[in-house]
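Write out structure tokens for tRNA/rRNA methyltransferase SpoU type domain-containing protein.
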Amino acid sequence: MFRNAAGMGVDAILFGNGCADPLYRRVVRVSMGHVLRTPFAHFGGKRTTWQRELEELKDAGFHLVSLTPHPEADHLADALVDATGRPYDKVALLVGAEGPGLTEHAMRATDVRARIPMAPGTDSLNLATSAAIAFYERDRSLR
């Protein structure tokens, strides 16, 4: 994910509890070293919860978008712009673990649920691919 984030100009990556250590040797290698150049932080530390940290992102003006394969979620491109078609200035994309994805509780904490359109018969993409598509779509919406 770090290589994808660096390639699409993502400002930072935030991790929830239970995520792999971003400084694990294999992560550093697979990221081609971008993990050492892309800022990151962990949500839900000892002094706060991820819910409170999401609230802080909202308070700082971020538009929170959760990715889900649910067919009734908004198209990703639509979720990144306001009602007038103008891109949100600051966006935080939430991507869940492969398999279970984001919890219902986590998705309720966001402003909008977004899906990446896929061919019939395909129910999901892996985390890095979904994140790369979302990063690209965000970058494209700013042009």
